[in-house]
Specification:
The structure is a homotrimer. By secondary structure, chain A is an all-alpha fold. Chain A contains 5 helices and no strands. Chains in contact: A-B, A-C, B-C. At the A-B interface, helix 1 and helix 2 of A face helix 2 and helix 4 of B.
Amino acid sequence: MESCKVVENIYLLVVVTLISVLQNVFFAQKVERECNCKNTHASAFERVSCANRNCMDAYPTFLAVMWCAGLCLSQAPAAFAGIIYLLVRQKYFIGYLGQTSQSTPGYLFGKRIISFLSLMCFVGIFNYLLGRFFGSDYKEYVETITSAASALLLLP
Amino acid sequence: MESCKVVENIYLLVVVTLISVLQNVFFAQKVERECNCKNTHASAFERVSCANRNCMDAYPTFLAVMWCAGLCLSQAPAAFAGIIYLLVRQKYFIGYLGQTSQSTPGYLFGKRIISFLSLMCFVGIFNYLLGRFFGSDYKEYVETITSAASALLLLP
Amino acid sequence: MESCKVVENIYLLVVVTLISVLQNVFFAQKVERECNCKNTHASAFERVSCANRNCMDAYPTFLAVMWCAGLCLSQAPAAFAGIIYLLVRQKYFIGYLGQTSQSTPGYLFGKRIISFLSLMCFVGIFNYLLGRFFGSDYKEYVETITSAASALLLLP
């Protein structure tokens, strides 16, 4: 019963985490394949390895901020933003491979989504502190606003 | 009381996480030592650094999937699979150092364990959704089967 | 109500995690800027990239051990140790950029804080097992001692 309650509050986050793990494995297999392929250009391996490394560097940050946002405020918008982040990451990875090495995309990606998730954490904690010290609880309003605001991430 | 409950459901996962942290520190100290050692071959440093980086790249993925599996389904099989993963990682790291650079092991390792943990997550969430929408709860059966299945990871 | 309880036990950890995410973004932007700057020395990019990578390699370990310590024992000393770690990391990053490449600081940093957090996890689990098998609960004493001991991290 108790354990069911736990799953209820996090299952969307777990689903997004699982999808991100599948994506990581997909990236890693790309690297593995380039690694084993003998008659490859060094630059192709260099590029896929660099793309993978940039994605992996940002991965713990993304996970931490998504779970914090999901736990502090509400899981649905956090999981939705997570899905968008994974799409952006996929596009970044593919784009990195296709580019010539002179014009690689930058080191950072998904800044808007990370900012949104951080903002969710801030709002969640602020709301908690407000409820603790002043007894007022705006959680429902905040959750509604957050869900609506997460749709803005769809804008290109 | 409440806090005790929390610890009860995760203490095995915490133990495995602690062991993995100790292993990370062990890996990092290997790199540190090669780094400081002046009369070393560049290739030895190259190799230990690469082995450490491959292990570190896969570490967040492993942590995420182990904790999700432990929270969603049950902690004992997840922690057991985590221990097996750490042994595989140790073997990979040692094997990487011993090899000549022409025949390094691949980029990926522990694929079977990550798949098993992902499967546990899927089953846990599926079971939760089944319980939510149809009112049936097979959690006990699933936990028993999972515990039995985790023994299969011991096969070489 | 239930969800409020959750936030109550973790909000300090979430705050520290958020600050660490901001620091990560700061590091990443430093790398990004060096990356785009055309008339830069290769060594400057090399150095900032290496400093960022060392910090990122240790980041999942830090997060895992801080959250485990916070969940198993008590969040205030864990969050305090986390803040100290972030300060040490900032100093390490800045120090790395300023050094000549002959005398870079080592690969590891913040060993004392990671050890302290690991010790907190061990104590928390040990205390839980003691309470489970012998019915004695020293959690309050342990928490007081831990809070006092965390002040020792301030020593240089």
